[in-house]
Amino acid sequence: MNLSRRQLLAATTAAGASLALPAASAAAAPNVVRRTRPAITSGIASGDVTTNSAVVWSRTDRRSRLVVELTSHGRFDRAIRLRGPVTSADDDFTAQLPLRGLRPGQRYDYRIGFEDSSGRIGETACGSFSTPGRNRPLSFVFTGDTAGQGYGINPEIGGMIAYKAMHQTRPDFFLHSGDNIYADGPIQATVNVADGTVWKNVVTEEVSKVAETLAEYRGRYKYNLLDQNVRDLYADVPLISQWDDHETLNNWYPGEILTDDRYTEKRVDVLASRARKAFLEYLPMVHTAGRDRIYRKVSYGPLLDVFCLDMRTYRGANPAPDVAGPVAMLGSEQAAWLVREAAASKATWKVIASDMPLGVLVPDGTEIEAVANGLAGAPGGREHEMAWVLSQFKRRKVRNTVWLTADVHYCAAHHYDPSRAAYTDFDQFWEIVAGPVNAGTFGPNALDSTFGPKVEFQKAADFPNQPPSGGNQFFGHAAIDPHSEVLAVSLRDLYGTVLWRKDLQPAGRGNPSS
Known about the structure:
Blueprint: H1 5-14, E1 18-20, E2 40-47, E3 53-60, E4 65-71, E5 80-86, E6 94-100, E7 107-115, E8 125-130, E9 138-143, H2 161-167, E10 173-177, E11 190-192, E12 198-200, H3 214-224, H4 228-236, E13 239-242, H5 268-282, E14 296-299, E15 304-308, H6 332-344, E16 349-353, E17 363-364, E18 367-368, H7 383-395, E19 401-405, E20 411-416, E21 429-433, E22 453-459, E23 475-480, E24 487-492, E25 498-504
Parallel strand pairs: 9-10, 10-13, 15-16, 16-19, 19-21
Antiparallel strand pairs: 1-5, 2-3, 3-6, 4-5, 4-7, 7-8, 9-23, 11-12, 14-15, 17-18, 20-21, 20-22, 23-24, 24-25
């Protein structure tokens, strides 16, 4: 192995796991199911991969211990075996194991199984990931909005086939920018579409109503993992996950009390606590400093740092458009963290993974859901916080920022320039909007001129709430050349067809990108 056994032992011991030598007699053959032994119920996944670390994940059907075999040369007879945490009903039999001491620029294969009380391992499944390294190309895909508006897994079209299209690009990682599930959107057997067609879904009891209990929130993640396209991508492509509103319910904010008759639990804080637990159980990610904090930085080597924002947990109540004073979106602690970490970043490109767009007007009835308030002129409401962040980026010479987002269910490329803006104390930058990946398509929305956005490209629905079968599902693809450091970004449809492409030059090499 090209791993340091001592480093892995220290890392896994800290995580409550222990290291054991491979023992061929203890492991079942790959993909063999033995009913009396633990099964793998929802596939496997890796996440938050960096140059020297990763997190692996799976779920089983009973109390048992996660066992991970890890190899850097494709041979499991020479793998290191890591014994991870013991699952229980308290975590819905999910388990995650952080791996540290990995080697930069290395492909790793892993095999996951679960060990019962007698030491026998049941069903196993294999996956892979690669750590970033110097002088190696880097690519990733990004999108959001899965299983929304009642559009779930449709066997007649092959399931969630946009996941297959993303998988076929062979990316180094997949950034999901929120709305991993639609906890507030029941999925029925059929959906009558406005064009006269009928959409057909796989259904489960747990998605038949709005999610309120912890079991119902968990059931939404289990539902998505019934799709083979999703499971295949998760096994081969590391995830970077963030959340938006539908992991809990539409347009929520802390302290909100519901008037929606579908809910017996009206306190959004109670629902959000259950939703957060399910989110952290079902998506592999680093728990920063021992806290269940969703905002974090994922370092992808010298070419890229990804800053994942959390625009839900710390926001104020959705304001009216004409509220002039500041309204929190990130909260002061997260905003300061973003500026501090971006300024300290040595990576060429800084991707700001924002679960909501900056300049797109997203109303919540008569109130404002996202950043833009729809009023020309000086910043108001949530725009104050973003104005501060952008100004600090300029002041601290944070170059080569690209904002990636989802949420609005159409795709677009926006260029922000102070020469067009009402508020001018910032450097120009790009915002790329992608999604939905398996949900109803809408748009386009109006743009707010405060930060000077210009639409360079957009593609939206042919009619409101168009189903995925219409082809207007969108994801983004980005590739960074290690020599020129050019970031080539494109927007693609349900089948992977390139709709728009732009080569972004890093500052100091031609025209500055930010």
